[in-house]
Each structure stands twice: as C-alpha cells, then as structure tokens.
Design goal:
Layout (H helix, E strand, L loop, with lengths): L7 H18 L10 H17 L4
Helix pairs in contact: 1-2
Amino acid sequence: MNLSAPTQIVFIIAVVIAIIALLMVFNVIGFIPIAAFWVMTIAFVVLAAGCLFKGA
C-alpha cells in the first residue's frame, strides 16, 4: 500500500472540521450535539482517507 499526499480540498476540509472541534472545546460553538473529541476524530479520519486513497 502506497501512501500519497491528500489533495488540497481534502486537507482544507479536514482543517475546517478540526477548527470546528477546537471551537467546541472552548464553548464558542455549542449547538453541535456530539463531543468535540468525535468531531476531531472525524477530521483525522478524513485526512487519513485522503492519504490512503490515491486521488482523494
């Protein structure tokens, strides 16, 4: 299995999701009904998928 760099759009999506999780930790955003840990986990999974799948 060869790893590749994620595309720019996948990287930006992962960063935006991570920033949302960070804002949830500091209670700036409170309307999302799941824990900030899971939002950050989703950001990491998106980034990891971008590295695992070529062209993603």
